[in-house]
Every structure is written in C-alpha cells, then in structure tokens.
TrEMBL record:
This is Succinylglutamate desuccinylase. The lineage of its organism: Bacteria, Pseudomonadati, Bacteroidota, Flavobacteriia, Flavobacteriales. CDD domains: M14_ASTE_ASPA-like. Residues 1-18 form the signal peptide. It comes from Euzebyella marina. Transmembrane segments: none annotated. Residues 61-254 form the Succinylglutamate desuccinylase/Aspartoacylase catalytic domain. InterPro entries: AstE_AspA_cat, N-alpha-Ac-DABA-like, N-alpha-Ac-DABA_deacetylase.
C-alpha cells in the first residue's frame, strides 16, 4: 500500500509541474524544446524581420522576455544572446524564455548607430509601436505584441553605441503606481551581479503616456523590468559579453527557472537613485581625458569644447559629485547633445 501511495504521489507531483506546449507566432513549441522563429516585418515598400528563439522548458514556470539589438550597433548584448540561446538547457528549464536575438536587423547589418537605416527612426523611441506605421514602428509593435505582452518578467539588453563610452550597470523601474512590479524589479536587479544599479523612477502621471522605450513599455504593463547597459563604443568586447551572459543566468536562478550553478552570491551593488546630465551648449570638437567609471567632484572641470579653429567655446563642469555612467567618447559634438551622465553618489 505504501508503494501505491508513493506512485500516486509521484504521478500527482509530475502532473503539477508538467509543462504544456507554448504557442508563439502561430507556432507550437513542445515542452523541453527550442524553436527558432522569424517574424517578418513589411510596410508594403520595405521589409525586414526579427529573429526570435523560444526556449520552452520541460517544467512549468514563468515567461521571461529578453531583447537584444534594439540598437544594432550595440554588439555585446547581441553576441550574449547567441550564447544564452546555446547555453540554456531546456530539459532543466522551468518556464519559458522568449529571446529576441536581434531586434534591429537592418541597423546591425548597416552598422548604423542609434537608428534603423530603413526609415531613420530610433527603435528605442518608438514603443509601443504602430501596427500600420513605418518599419521601425512595426518592429516595436511586433515586439510589444509577441514578446512583451507574453512576459511575466522582462529584460532589455543594451551597451554603449559607437560614440558612447559607458560603464556596466543595470537598472530597474520603480513607481508608486506599481509597487509590486517595482519590488520584484529591484530584487531582479540586485541578483544579477552588477557593481552598480540605477533606479529608473517613473512618476505616476507618466504611466498614462506612451512608453517610448522598449523596457518602459513592459513596466507600463506592470511587468517587473530590468535594463542592462554593458559595453562601450560599439566594441564587441568578450568581457562585456560574458558579463551579460552571467547576469542573465544569475537572474534565471533568482527566478527559480534554473538551478543555482553560480556558487558565489553577488555582493550588494551601489544603488544610484539620481542622475545628472551635462548637455553641450555648442557644436564643435569635444575634448576630455575622463572615461566612464571615473569618480568626479562637484564643480570639477571634465573637459572643454572648441570651434573648428581650436578656439575654446566652453569648459564642461560637473554639476554634482558621483560616477561617470556615460560620456561621449568621440570628438564630434552637436549643441544639445549629452556629454556626460553622472550617477550621483554622496561623499
């Protein structure tokens, strides 16, 4: 009789954790399998596509949406996405990962910073997108419909584009409008092993307006959401790529989608609640010996701008003390562009 009870208990337990098939873009993915899917995008004149890998675990669990290549010149996340797709063991995975391998294919193939060369629009300024819009707006709509809307948790992976010197950090969205999503987002961010974590504070009144950004669209839907920034100057760095891969696997472990394979727990990151940006008052040539990750003091001179004859137009002065999250890493500068972003850290 004890044996019978054991068999019944085992069968019942397996029933509770058994996974059902997952449908994505009209394709059925069986439990414990991986499917590579192409989402075609066409506006009647131009066309492109979105390559997506769906990793459907053998056991029940949450759906994690992950996007790479929203900006096609940000290489470490794109390379990391390929490693993630190959390293995840779907037989051991609990839940499902919808992994956008490369959101902006035309930007990647065209080596185009920031924008999609087909229509000149920035995909990360186009969310939630438009069903009948331009190519970029259609890409945003497709990601919103097929990836974000299906996700229980969401991560958008970025790096420094071709002129952007950027230090590694992650960020979570927080708003009094969505306390539960904010709390879970914070827990996600702290689990991922970055030395610095930024809070993206979203006022309640902002929630009712168009999201604009890929990750913010997820948060507007009450989905706990993380941004990753890891990589600089459009360089396909191995260290940055591996850092992203490691952070995603730490997150999978935190979400109980995989077993813990990383022995050491991440140390608590420095949390940055506020940032200060410095914008240029002139167009010209930008000079600075500082780099991302440097600590700076309030009123410290960080660089200067000249005209094309070499005449100094302005000194660039830090408005706050903190750490340089970002700086323009190339000489050309246009009036109104951001020169530095400082994560404010109290002395």
């Amino acid at each position: 009789m004890r044996f019978v009870y054991l068999v019944l208990f085992t069968c019942f337990s397996n029933f509770l954790v058994a996974q059902e098939a997952f449908t994505f873009f009209d394709q059925v993915i069986n439990p414990g399998t991986k499917k590579e899917v192409i989402i075609p995008i066409n506006d009647g004149r131009d066309s492109t596509y979105i390559p997506v890998t769906v990793l459907h675990g053998a056991r029940k669990g949450p759906v994690l949406g992950v996007t790479a290549g929203v900006h096609g010149y940000e290489y470490p996340p794109i390379l990391a996405a390929q490693k993630i797709a190959s390293k995840v063991d779907v037989a051991q995975l609990k839940g499902t990962i919808i992994l956008v391998q490369l959101a902006n294919v035309a930007g990647f193939l065209g080596r185009s910073p920031f924008v999609n060369p087909i229509d000149g629009k920035n995909l990360n300024r186009s969310f939630p997108g438009k069903k009948d819009g331009t190519i970029t707006e259609k890409i945003a709509h497709a990601i919103t419909k097929h990836v974000i809307s299906k996700s229980d948790f969401f991560v958008d992976m970025h790096a420094g584009d071709s002129p952007e010197d950027l230090m590694p950090y992650n960020a979570w969205y927080s708003s009094e409008a969505f306390p539960e999503a904010s709390r879970k987002g914070k827990e996600m961010a702290l689990s991922m092993g970055y030395d610095y974590a930024v809070i993206f504070q979203i006022p309640e009144e902002r929630i009712s307006k168009p999201s604009i950004y890929c990750s913010q669209e997820a948060f507007h839907r009450k989905i706990p959401t993380i941004d990753i920034e890891c990589g600089r100057l459009g360089i396909p760095g191995t260290e940055e790529t591996d850092k992203i891969v490691s952070s995603i696997f730490r997150l999978l472990s935190h979400l109980n989608m995989t077993s813990k394979t990383i022995a050491n727990e991440p140390k608590a990151p420095v949390i940055i609640e506020k940032r200060a940006s410095i914008k240029s008052n002139h167009s010209g040539i930008f000079y600075s010996s500082y780099k991302s990750g440097d600590r700076v003091k309030n009123k410290e001179v960080l660089g200067y701008i000249t005209d094309f004859f070499g005449n100094k137009l302005e000194d660039i002065v830090a408005p706050e003390s903190g750490i340089l999250l970002y700086k323009i890493g190339t000489p050309p500068i246009n009036k109104g562009e951001t020169l530095f972003s400082i994560g404010i850290i109290e002395d």
